[in-house]
Amino acid sequence: MKLIEELGKRRMLTVVKTVDFGIYLGTSEERVLLPKKEVPKEIEIGDPVEVFLYKDSSDRLIATTAEPKITLGELAVLTVKDTGKIGAFLDWGLPKDLLLPFKEQTAKVKKGDQVLVALYVDKSERLCATMKVYEKLETDSPYKKDDHVEGIVYERSDNFGVFVAVDNKYSALIPKREAYGGHLQVGDKVHARVIKVREDGKLDLSVREKAFIQMDADAELIVKRMEEHGGKLPFTDKADPEKIKNELGLSKNAFKRAVGRLLKENKVIITEKSIEFPHR
């Protein structure tokens, strides 16, 4: 076992030497340092120690007994600690922050953002993070149509919609037609409804409820927007679909259903150019 090939993994290694500044783990031919501050009490040569292998700030292979927030082959949501000239730096629970190179970002990130990433070893044999996780997501979720799920947005596409990792591990998409308003951004947490389970196991989602349930929420949204604009909307249910989508984040059909509900309840009236509260 070459130790460099175990980079990014947790491994059980044997103590082969003790020194003033720590202990060496591995074999007589190849070994790695576990710094003194992390050495378990009453450790002896020949004892096994479970450690995680990574590289320190001097690019040397080093062992730690600390538990990283992500290991090779896993996905995890990590927080951006800072950004720099070569990318962003993520908090992964170890002294040296994890680099997220610019080329591995699916959207620009800033300090404090939370992003779903995978861990990989780059060409220089360093551990880095990538937001390009599409190929790493699972397609055998336990969910079925109309189930409610939670996930995180990891990528956006003008052609397809919003890509979501359900439970941070299952492949899902909010199709463009369901991503009303375009307000979802990479890193956003979403609550959604499964509208389809594809043959390959991937999920199609909607952030909206079924029409008869969603109608109440849409009607409330319209009333709230009218209150913010002096008691009226400056357009009617005959408005251009794009205008409705931009103003309210609703499809034209959803808007018409909600307005119809408000009309039926005598909560609004429609004039030639606007929707208004009834004059009292």
UniProtKB/TrEMBL annotation:
Top-rank taxon: Bacteria
InterPro entries: CvfB_fam (IPR014464), CvfB_S1_3rd (IPR048587), CvfB_S1_st (IPR039566), CvfB_WH (IPR040764), NA-bd_OB-fold (IPR012340), S1_domain (IPR003029), WH-like_DNA-bd_sf (IPR036388)
Domain S1 motif: 146-208
One Pfam family here: CvfB_2nd
Molecular function terms from GO: nucleic acid binding
Classification via PROSITE patterns: S1
PANTHER family according to UniProt: CONSERVED VIRULENCE FACTOR B
Family, similarity comment: Belongs to the CvfB family.
The protein's name: S1 RNA-binding domain-containing protein
Organism name: Dorea formicigenerans
Top-level taxonomy: Bacteria, Bacillati, Bacillota, Clostridia, Lachnospirales
